[in-house]
Amino acid sequence: MYRTATLGALLSLMLLVSACTAKDEPKSEGPAIGEQMDYTETGANKTMNAYEESIVEAVNKNRFSLVEGLLDPAGPLYAQQEGLVRRLASKNIKEKLIRYQIMNIQKINGEYKFYITEKIGVYYPSGRVDMNEYEWIYTVKEEPNTGKTRVYSIERWE
C-alpha cells in the first residue's frame, strides 16, 4: 500500500512538473493596436540625435555639409536648413543646443514622427542672448531598400 501511494504521488508530481515547465512558442503577430513600441535603438533615433547636434554645429561654422547627409534632399527641411545656415552665418549669429528631449516616437509606413522639445541659446554679435524653447514634430523617412534614415520635414507641435 505504501508503495502504491508513493508511486501515485511521484506520478502526480511528474505530471505537475511537466505541465509547469511546458512552454508554448510565442506568436509573432507583431504589436497589438495601441501598444507602445521602443524605437530608441533604431537608425531613425540615431539620425535624429545626430541631426540635433549637427544643425547647431553647421550654423556656427557656416558649413551646411556638416548636417547635409542627415537630411533628405527630397524633403522641405533640406532647403529650409540650408537657408537657415546661410542666413544666420551672414548675420554672425551663433547657436548653442542647451537641451533637447525626444518625448515620443511613432512609426507609420516607414516614417518616424519624433515629438521633440528643444531649448536653443541664440547669441547675437551685439552680446544679446535669447533662450528659445520649441516643440517640434520631425518626420524621419527610412529608405526601404537600404534602411538608411534621413530627416525629411519639421512642423510645429501644438
TrEMBL record:
Residues 1-22 form the signal peptide. It comes from the Bacteria. Keywords: Signal. Residues 41-154 form the TcaA protein NTF2-like domain. It holds the Pfam family TcaA_5th. This is TcaA protein NTF2-like domain-containing protein.
